[in-house]
Amino acid sequence: MGESKKHLILVAGEASGDMHAAHLVKELKHLDPSLAFSGLGGPQMQENGVEIYKDLTRMAVVGFIEVLQHYREIREAFHLILTKACEIMPAAVILVDYPGFNLALARELKKRNIKVIYYISPQVWAWGEKRVYKIQRYVDRMLVLFQFEKDFYTRFGIHVDFVGHPLLDTVQVTQSKEAFLRSHGLQTEKLTVGLLPGSREKEVEHLLPVMLEAADILAGKFPHIQFLILNAPTIKKSLIEKFCRRSPCRPLIIGGETYDGIHACDVCIVASGTATLETAILKKPMVVVYKTSFLTWLLAKCLVKIPDIGLVNVVAGKRIVPECVQFQATGPKIAEELENIFTNEIRIAEMKAEFDKVKSVLGSGGSSRRAAHKIIESVRT
Predict the structure, then answer these.
(1) DSSP conformation letters of 87-135
(2) Strand-strand pairing, 252-255 and 160-162
(3) Rounded to an integer, what distance in angstroms lies between the CA atom of residue 368 and that of residue 373?
(4) Which listed residue, of 120, 139, 165, 351, carries a Cα 20 to 30 Å from 103's Cα?
(5) 177-361 is classed in which CATH architecture?
(6) Model pLDDT for residues 175-189, shown as the tens digit of each residue
(7) Strand partners, 93
(8) What is the pTM of this model?
(9) Radius of gyration of the chain (CA)
(10) What's the CATH number for 3-166+366-379?
């Protein structure tokens, strides 16, 4: 193969995509050490040898209005990666989640006869089937995380492989609950509540205030309770501290130890998204919270076709954990839902049993390795 046939471009726009793409690159290098990588992504991809043209994860946004506010930067990144792809003419461009950006990019890449592989499917089953026809036209191969996604795409004649979920490999605990709590000066005998406010700044700005309000209510009602905030690597600690200054519950802010932190909690309040699956894998009861700008919410209500938005509930096919969404995302409502969990041992046991079922749906370990094999197979044919 020529030099371009040894080059793969990857595009990931969020922290979770950056993580999954980094693991994928690691497996691809193991299969073929001569491969070169470049693209749009974040620090984890860069640490694994990907030449990053622009770090999209630092401006990760969610919602229609929020995207418009960053339109100029997003447009510049779009044209940059398209220009690079045309210069390099890689063996393939691997798109990782980030559907608004990546589906538009797929269309332009196909015009230029560049192979497109999509890893981690857009949630077309949630947003209606309109986007599936774009995938049908512009994507050469889909690598999906859930069996129901494979079944969905197969109906439309799309070349699709179910590889399983990479979280089964990445969610690893390195120390006991007691050791973790002691190492951070927390008490092992207290009920520990974890707050996971998200990996995007706008998420944190919308969700952390109501999470803290719920924590303050519970702290006033239950003396033997303590709180910790698990700070995503994409969020500056100073932003978290700004919201915590006036909070009577005095939560401890912890960065870089997400899985050990979740494992050390008894219950969690979690931003809707990948974190709900991570929390479910670690079998921690939770309340899912989602809140965005009013206009974004109205638009989403018109488009979303499924009853639940928490990924753990979507994968389960039913509501197994409570969701406090938009107007229900208030401190009192979140506190009520969380209290209803940690004061009910039967409900906790039922929830954990459902988490086992969710974990089984995610497939088996080695997802990134399977995806890498499919990509190598695809670029060599």
Answers:
(1) HH--SEEEEES-HHHHHHHHHHHHHTT--EEEES---TTTS-SHHHHHH
(2) unpaired
(3) 9
(4) 165
(5) 3-Layer(aba) Sandwich (3.40)
(6) 999 999 999 999 999
(7) 9, 116
(8) 0.84
(9) 21
(10) 3.40.50.2000
